[in-house]
Amino acid sequence: MGGAGRAARYRADVSTVPEAGGAPVDGVPALLRAIVDDAALVAEGPRPDMATVVDEHLAARAADAGGLLGSLVVPVSRLSELVAVLVKRRPSAPLPIALAVDTGLGGVPKALSLTSSRSALLDPRTVEMPAPHDVDTVWLERVTEFVPEDVVAVVEPRRPDVDGSEDWLDGVRRVVDHGCRPKLRCGGGRAGAFPGVKDVAGFVALAVGAGRSFTASIGLRSAVRHTDPDTGFTHHGWLNLLVATVRGLAPGTDSPVEERIGEALLVTDGEALAAELADVGAEAAVRVRSLFSSFGSTAVTGPGPELARLGLL
Questions:
Q1: Cβ-based neighbours of 143, under 8 Å, separated by 6 or more
Q2: Angstrom distance (rounded) from CA 83 to CA 93
Q3: If you average pLDDT over residues 229-237, what whole number do you get?
Q4: Residue 291, Cβ neighbours under 10 Å: how many?
Q5: For residue 263, with 0-12 CB atoms within 10 Å meaning exposed, 13-18 middle and 19 or more buried, which class applies?
Q6: How far is CA 223 from the centre of its chain?
Q7: pLDDT at residue 218, rounded to an integer
Q8: Which has the closest alpha carbon to 45: 234, 159, 228, 188?
Q9: CB crowding 65-90: b at 16 or more within 10 Å, else e
Q10: What Cα–Cα distance (Å) separates residue 305 from each residue in 59, 163, 224, 301?
Q11: DSSP the chain
Q12: Average pLDDT of the chain?
């Protein structure tokens, strides 16, 4: 893709980030609006029932903390099924969706054609896909051929189980340089699926330095960093990621950006994180959310009560 194409995709990337200025809407402050993507349909485990997921998603959107919700992540292979359910439910507005590519890039044009023909039901915001281990410019060129410039291409470079891989960060850098939005997978069913602080800090620092928005994938089960007593896995907190982005943008500090970000990722005091975010002004909120676009959650009703306890809603 040439320079003009990259610039066009960058404008599309920024345009999908919710505006973060002004007063809270429905009790949700600008910094947190549309930050939670519903990943129930792509969760590990048994195949979820489409009608149940849609009903729960629409109910969550209509609830008091509905302003937290961004897109419903739907596999391309199940898009027709989603349309069939929405035809019966008749939502009051087109449903924002993120298309998760599980059929190969060749299935993307047909999926986008379907969303276009059902524009009263669907509003495609992103097309999300895993990258091969050796993600290179040739593969990224194919991505830009299949994903139009008015939809954001979200690419997840495959991360090795060993923390601190420079090859992985090089892949993230290629994704960023090509004008796509990088995605960070934050957990899974095995210990190696959870990136360490070094990898997460490197990822966020790279995105912040490039001025490129990023998204975080499943694994962020709570707002605050914690260790699951049943599995022993340490989960990153999505509020930690948000504070890490704030600190990454902070000017006039002596410590390196990656160090500031890493310190934010290690905080386990939810009230301290909430207090730091409460001090973020409207202008700074715009900058933060232009970088941290959203994160995927398989329990969309969870963040609201947690944020209310912390005083952020």
A1: 105, 129, 153, 155, 178, 180
A2: 14
A3: 93
A4: 20
A5: middle
A6: 14
A7: 83
A8: 188
A9: bbbbbbbbbbbbebbebbbebbeeee
A10: 15, 33, 13, 8
A11: --HHHHHHHHHHHHHTSPP--SS-BTTB-GGGTT-EEE-GGG-SSSPPPHHHHHHHHHHHHHSTTGGGEEEEEEEGGGHHHHHHHHHHH--SSPEEEEEE--S-GGGHHHHHHHHHHTTTTEEEEEEEEEPPTT--HHHHHHHHHHS-TTSEEEEEPPPPSSSS-HHHHHHHHHHHHTTPEEEE----SSGGGS--HHHHHHHHHHHHHHT--EEE-TT--SSS-EE-TTT-PEEPPHHHHHHHHHHHH--S-SS-HHHHHHHHHT---HHHHHHHHHT--HHHHHHHHTTEEEEEES-TTSHHHHHHHTT--
A12: 89
pTM for this structure?
Answer: 0.90
| Residue 187, token pair as written in the block | 């957990």
Which tokens go with 284?
A: 């700074």
Q: What is the mean pLDDT of residues 102-117?
A: 95
pLDDT tens string 11-43? 344 433 444 334 445 789 999 999 999 999 999
Both tokens of 216, joined, read 């975080």
% of the chain surpassing 90 pLDDT: 77
pLDDT of residue 31: 96
Q: How far is it, in rounded angstroms, from Cα 45 to Cα 37?
A: 18
Specify which residues 38 forms β-bridges with. 72, 297
Has residue 163 got a pLDDT over 80? no
| CATH of region 3-300 | 3.20.20
